[in-house]
Amino acid sequence: MGSTQKNVLAALTAALLWAFAFVAPAAVRPASELLLVTGRYSLFGLCGLYVLWRGRRQLGLMPTRRILFGLYIGFVGYFVFYVCVSYSATMDSGFITAVVVGSSPITIAVAGNFAEKRMSWRELIAPVVLIIVGLTLLSVSDLIQGDDLEGANDSLFAILLALGAMLTWSYFVVRNAQSQRTWETKPDPTLWAGLVAMGAGGASMVLLPFAIASTPAETFEPYPLFKIIAWCVFLGVIASWWGTYIWVKAAQGIPVPLVGPLLATETIFGAILSLPVERRLPTWSEVTGALFVLAGIGVYMFFDVKNSRTRNGGNGGSGGHGGDDDERSSDASGVPVVT
């Protein structure tokens, strides 16, 4: 029991580290969102490059198509994802962005259900409806509060960007899980994480000069410059790389039913942390929308846990099928589960 509690605490620590990704875009102003993204993932990519260099012999044995695929999903699932998150958070609210992205377990479940029937479609109706209601409340929060039309339009565009981030992350998780499940020889998790990091880092390194050139001049004054560098180091090395290491180690000792809820805490932390940075309290429509989204995720996880126990024949995941579920949960969180 003590070991499980320590692993849960470690997983929560990783989720908290990742949650700062929703806070950073507003915290680094006047630096541009693109500078934050490229700075963060350039450092993350260098960590991946170091891992790939150390494992270059194993990398040489990996088929080229798998190497390219790892780089590709790293670019889409990390770089494109965080571009959407950053612009969404600064256009409207890190709180709303975190809540919208937090509904990704449902899109992952729907997409995954097409490829591998895990639960009845009927069981997905209630979670999907709850989340749609919640997202609708979040989308029209400015109109409900009586704000001007321009502010409402910005909020709606920010919601679209957040939905883009949610769909991008869902695509990454599903494709990563599907591909590795169909491969006869699975890549080493550390080496695979290095490839994904390089996929995000490669694009960032290419765009970093443009991001610097398009950043407001006041960003390069001493304090703003120190702030953006500190955030890039924190997000790229501590949150992304070290946070992933903590999660992978902790997940090995966490019961399967707890994996989903622990991953979901990332966006809950992100929503809570965003409010002090934005110096405000959430509106009633934001709170109501967030509660609907959380309720949808909760209902989905209830059915998922119930179905997992049914598949395991009541063995609590300790039998042969339990190994399959452990593998599924690891893949579903995308081995490198950084955001």
From TrEMBL:
Keyword Transmembrane: yes
UniProt region (Disordered), positions on chain: 313-339
Compartments, record wording: Cell membrane
Key words of the record: Cell membrane, Membrane, Transmembrane, Transmembrane helix
Membrane-spanning intervals of the chain: 36-55, 67-89, 95-115, 124-144, 156-174, 195-216, 228-248, 255-277, 283-303
Domain EamA: 8-139, 157-299
A Pfam match: EamA
Topology of the protein relative to the lipid bilayer: Multi-pass membrane protein
Chief site of localization: membrane
Family: Belongs to the EamA transporter family.
Protein name: DMT family transporter
Source organism (scientific name): Streptomyces pyxinae
